[in-house]
Design brief:
Elements: H1 6-20, E1 28-31, E2 34-37, H2 43-49, E3 59-63, H3 69-86, H4 95-99, H5 112-117, E4 124-127, H6 137-140, E5 144-149, H7 152-165, H8 175-183, H9 192-200, E6 208-212, H10 213-218, H11 220-230, H12 237-246, H13 249-254, H14 256-260, H15 263-267, H16 282-295, H17 300-304, H18 307-311
Parallel strand pairs: 3-4, 3-5, 5-6
Antiparallel strand pairs: 1-2
Helix pairs in contact: 3-12, 11-12
The chain binds 3'-phosphate-adenosine-5'-phosphate sulfate (PPS).
Length: 313
């Protein structure tokens, strides 16, 4: 099944071609104190985004870059599309394929949000944004949000390799150089610690469900079932197993040329837990452990991340 497709590949191919021609300094711009890639975001889009009207039946996925958003986005799209087909409705679920929109909310053009008003329910929407930068209607209209989080050492590892393979992002000579940027929040979409800190304020909301990359790796079937229940998507056991099968790392990687084009070769890298052990040195481990302890250790999301299990050797 082609979950993404033409529009998705078109946006990414264009970004990669533009990125090739840019200097390091040109690749990011800052909006309200947070950096974003120039090739896919702009201050004009952020202004237009304020007018976006969320619906209570929207299916929203929130995750910091490199947390596995394409993976869980694929699961969500598959769940919504399967439910819609059962209802005899072939028009919703795969926004991108059928509606021609890029699934990440903050990526697109200034007219995107007007077009989205015409899209039938249920719309599947991904975002890397923190709650204060989301349109107010998301919380006001009680849209359901699935919050995806991943242990910070693997997020940093994935982001480092991604930055060095993808032309729209600034690259780094050494992991140490990247690590400094990551720890000081000089990253596209800002600091991961700020991200968790801000989302933690909504972790107890009844319309927000949190899932971790690691628990999904541990037991995909159980995670898929929980997600389907949260969004009231009534699939049969057989249909759930189909979604589980189609969302394995290997299945998605094998389908990546069709789903993500050239970008897929960079995106589907390892899909593992603990790859940070191949990159972090002792000083970097200590520094991140300390920052986690100071910023997130006592919080609800901090506990969900199971830092000691996943980030300590
Ligand atoms: N099916 C499946 N199973 C497990 N892991 C998967 C899967 N699909 C993608 N991935 C991994 O998710 C990481 C990319 O995260 P994102 O999709 O959020 O990246 S992006 O910010 O949107 O570019 C990236 O992690 P790393 O491999 O550690 O770099 C992908 O490999």
């Amino acid at each position: 099944m082609a979950q993404h497709s033409k529009k998705f590949i078109e946006v990414l191919d264009k970004a990669m071609a533009e990125g090739e021609k840019m200097t390091r300094e040109e690749k990011l711009f800052t909006y309200k104190g947070i950096a974003y890639p120039t090739t896919v975001c702009s201050p004009e889009i952020f202004k237009a985004l304020e007018s976006f009207k969320a619906r209570s039946d929207d299916v929203i996925l929130a995750g910091y870059p490199k947390s596995g958003t394409n993976w869980v986005g694929h699961i969500l799209t598959d769940l919504v599309t399967t439910t819609a087909k059962n209802d005899g409705d072939e028009t919703n679920g795969s926004n991108d394929e059928q509606q021609g929109e890029f699934p990440y909310l903050e990526i697109g053009d200034v007219d995107k949000y007007q077009r989205m008003e015409k899209m039938p329910s249920r719309r599947v929407i991904f975002t890397h944004l923190i709650p204060p930068n989301l349109p107010v209607s998301v919380f006001k209209n009680k849209a359901k949000v699935l919050l995806l989080i991943r242990n910070p050492k693997d997020v940093a590892t994935s982001f480092y390799h991604f930055s060095n393979s993808l032309s729209p992002l600034p690259s780094y000579e050494t992991f140490d150089e990247f690590f400094t940027a990551f720890m000081t929040g000089q990253m596209p979409w800002g600091s991961y610690f700020d991200y968790i800190f801000e989302w933690n304020k909504h972790a107890a909301d009844e319309n927000v469900m949190t899932i971790t990359y690691e628990e999904l790796k541990e037991n995909r079937a159980s995670g898929v079932k929980r997600i389907a229940e949260f969004f009231d998507l009534p699939l049969t056991e057989e249909e759930i197993q189909g979604v589980v099968k189609r969302s394995s790392f290997q299945a998605m990687k094998d389908n990546s040329q069709e789903s993500h084009g050239a970008f897929g070769q960079t995106l589907f890298r390892k899909g593992d837990v603990s790859d940070w052990k191949n990159l972090f040195n002792e000083d970097q481990n200590q520094e991140m452990d300390k920052t986690f302890e100071e910023r997130l250790a006592g919080s609800q999301l901090g506990a969900k991340l199971k830092y000691d299990t996943y980030c300590k050797a």
